[in-house]
Design a protein that fits this description.
alpha/beta, 6-stranded mixed β-sheet, nucleotide-binding, cell membrane, membrane, 4-stranded antiparallel β-sheet, 9 helices, cell division, about 40% helix
């Protein structure tokens, strides 16, 4: 379903790669947790799956397609088969829960008859069938995230990417969101979730892929958040400190695991990663505003015709 074939991504000349020599595959129907410290390469992996950026070297495949061979005008069609859920929900503040979900269908030209059937189905699936007329600020954080998940899943994508979907939620609410993502996965959608949520990973016990400095240091079925892996930063086995990593390079023989899939190198610059994340947010927000404006204009035209 998703495959990285010897992928390296460097954003700026002279910087450490955001990901390096990445060889990994996520198969159809899997539920995978991406874990690692900030700047470890998780967001870059998701950006490449969405074709928001491309690899400097290597090949990314999604649904069997080499993304480097997909022209820009076909990218929207690719993204229709990939749902995306964010930590901060990214709902349209002036639209109701119903309209936020409707929006995802309207921008791809879904007939209104189909929209009127699918949106209530999604609201019922996420347990908000009685809150479709509420604006985002009238919903709790957990309810907003449920709307965001419904919007991401309404097109029945084969892949759902979730970037810290429980990061702004209390533990009990987060459990409900995880159960919802698990239900979507059981319906056949591949779910890849980047997270720092210890309890979520430990509770679900799915495949865990840990990143350090743009490389995979652990790929474990039924794994927990923390690990005995000597090079794990999130477990405290290796401090989140670039100077320390230079003293003890990740490709040193004593840090290698028999089942490792990639060679090791230094981490990317965390400050650069933060800047890139801000740019990504700005880019997505701008695209969302353009689509919303087009959607509003379509509604006005329809009202005029009536």
């Amino acid at each position: 379903m998703i495959r990285f074939d010897n992928v390296t991504k460097t954003y700026m000349r002279g910087q450490h790669p955001a990901v390096e020599n990445l060889d990994i595959e996520f198969t159809r129907g899997e539920f995978v947790f991406l874990v690692g410290a900030s700047g470890s390469g998780k967001s870059t992996m998701m950006r490449m799956v969405l074709k928001e950026t491309g690899p400097t070297r290597g090949t990314v495949y999604v649904a069997g397609k080499d993304l480097s061979r997909i022209p820009s005008w076909k990218v929207p069609a690719l993204r229709r088969d990939i749902g995306m859920v964010f930590q901060d929900f990214r709902l349209l503040p002036s639209k109701t829960a119903y309209q936020n979900i409707e929006f995802a269908l309207a921008v791809i030209g879904t007939p209104r008859k189909v929209v009127r059937r699918l949106v209530p189905e999604m609201l019922e699936m996420v347990g908000l069938e009685d809150k479709g007329k509420r604006l985002p600020h009238e919903l709790s954080g957990g309810e907003q995230q449920r709307v965001a998940i419904a919007r991401a899943y309404v097109n029945r994508p084969s892949i759902l990417l979730a970037d810290e979907p429980t990061g702004n939620l209390d533990p009990s609410t987060a459990e409900g969101i995880l159960d919802l993502l698990g239900e979507i996965n059981e319906r056949g959608t591949t779910v890849v979730m980047a997270t720092h949520d210890h309890s979520a990973v430990d509770r679900m016990r799915r495949r865990v892929v840990e990143m350090v400095g743009g490389q995979v240091v652990r790929d474990q079925e039924g794994g927990r958040y923390e690990s005995e892996t000597p090079v794990s930063v999130i477990s405290g086995n290796l401090p989140d400190d670039s100077a320390h990593r230079e003293e003890h390079p990740l490709d040193a023989a004593e840090y290698r695991e028999p089942a490792e899939r990639t060679e090791r190198t230094e981490p990317e610059d965390d400050s650069a990663a933060d800047v890139l994340e801000e740019e990504l947010i700005d880019e997505r927000d701008a695209r969302l505003e353009r689509d919303e404006a087009a959607f509003d204009e379509e509604d006005e035209d329809e009202e005029d015709r009536r």
